[in-house]
């Protein structure tokens, strides 16, 4: 049950692109054709499935507060979590290099069409963001970490697939010339993001989110919506003070 | 331009308009969306990115002949991560409040596509001085868009600029609020950042027809 819940949450409610706005660069630049979009989406799923569980292992057995206890009781006091950024990015960079070599070997046409953006997958914020979300949401088991990697990658895949399908369709529409291409894509993405906000109540049956989840999201602060909530709260506080 | 040759000056001015990193090269969108709800956060972000991109460009350019191509991404990420840690520590030491407000986003400069894009596309093939100018130019173009977006989002969303209420007080109904004006809270939500950037692109391209994409 918790697997299903995590899956739907990662694919729809906390969709990488529409809820947290991660990985926008490649999302916008490689979504002109469905075929390349599918290729990049598949690469993201692949990298996510590998890096999220790997980083989960690193986090649990190396970085967390007290994670070194398996070395002996005298190591239990160490907290290496300040190293998590550099450890995660190193894992990710190595894995993307591997994917690049594999794709170059087995599908040269895909390799040519992805061009500059395959190296950029290493700095795709969606990949690092996935690992950081995994850390801040404190995913309890290895299996759930694999699930989270897959489902957040799948959410990204669905997003890039849908935007590329729309972009192929609107090629024949009469868009004002200056808005063609990038401009209209931004606006469509904005509209889709508004649409995806409506998934928010899916698992809670329309009730408010559980407070524990909210604090977890605030903590990692990657989430733009949370930031704006903070800003609104700030504004409210200021108003209260003035009153 | 006594100090800079015409070619060098072009490296700085080009990314400001015709080759802007956000609106034309489509790099660094994530942070442009994430922090533009407030103007002062955007300004600090722009300065931090300028530091990291220009110095990082110089370092990568100096190392360009000794980096093995197989591991260049990892080298680039290490350089970027090192510089971002410097920025983070400086902010923590001299502007603690601001750094608390920005903390995670400073870390996210590591994954800012502008960095990798410029390292990959420019610094690996050019001399340090040119790379430095390219870094300054591109991050200035990035910062410019960031500040424009943040200006409109903060003004229309919360009626303030840099935290100062410029449109009057919405509770006492002074200033424009006396005439029934209301803040548009929707501007503070992320989708409106996308729409704002879309409109900026629209304006830019209608002024410069050479940027219009052919379908």
Descriptive report:
The complex is a heterodimer of chains A (243) and B (215). Chain A has 243 residues and is mainly alpha-helical. Chain A has eleven helices and no strands. Chain A is 69% helix and 0% strand. In chain A, helix 3 packs antiparallel against helix 8. Chain A is globular, with a radius of gyration of 20 Å. With 215 residues, chain B is mainly alpha-helical. Helix content of chain B is 61%, strand content 2%. In chain B, helix 1 packs parallel to helix 7 (128-158) and helix 3 (39-63) packs across helix 5 (96-107). Chain B starts with 5 loop residues before the first helix and ends in an 8-residue tail after the last helix. The interface between A and B is large, with 57 and 60 residues.
Give me a quick take on this structure.
The complex is a heterodimer of chains A (243) and B (215). Chain A is mostly helical and 243 residues long. Chain A contains eleven helices and no strands.
Distance, first to last CA of chain B: 39 Å
Mean pLDDT of chain B: 78
Largest sheet of chain A: none
Chain pair with largest interface: A-B, 57 and 60 residues
Q: State the share of residues found in helices of chain A, binned by percent.
A: 55-70%
Please mark out the parts of chain A with pLDDT under 50 across 5 or more consecutive residues, or reply none: 209-229
Order of helices and strands of chain B: HHHHHHHEEH
Q: Biggest sheet of chain B, strands in spatial order? A: 1-2
**Could you tell me the radius of gyration of chain B in angstroms?**
19 Å
